[in-house]
Amino acid sequence: MRIAVQIIAYLWASPYTITGIAIGLILNGRFQRVDGVIEIHGPRIAWLLRHMIVCAQALTLGHVVFGQNESALDFTRRHERVHVRQYERWGPMFVPLYLLFSAILFLRGRDGYRDNPFEIEAYEAEEAE
Ligand SMILES: [Zn+2]
Predict the structure, then answer these.
(1) Mean pLDDT over residues 71-81, rounded?
(2) Torsion sign (Cα): 31, 78, 85, 122
(3) Separation in Å, CA 118 to CA 12, 56, 59, 78, 98
(4) Which of 32, 47, 82, 89 is the most buried (most CB within 10 A)?
């Protein structure tokens, strides 16, 4: 039963995971597997993460986590694993929901990143360490 649920979770998040793997291959990233998650880092990945709207140490797409380098992946693992669980919960709806929350918060004069409930959950898990 547990394995069936895990398979469904991987399938549910797979559109993002496949996109993440494609980006990792295109950007010539180095792949590693940690606890059922694919972690990808490399110079081009680092450049991309530094040039996003919010400069990020790491970014999760389904069961893929991009990191600026190996130590960034180690440092952010607990936080990014919460995002992996969120992709498993929300599947294809995760990114639209995340962006919708950010937009609503921004329009209300709040921080679309730090006040986003998905980030609040991830930062709480990080602090519970
Ligand atoms: Zn986050």
Answers:
(1) 97
(2) negative
(3) 18, 15, 13, 14, 7
(4) 82
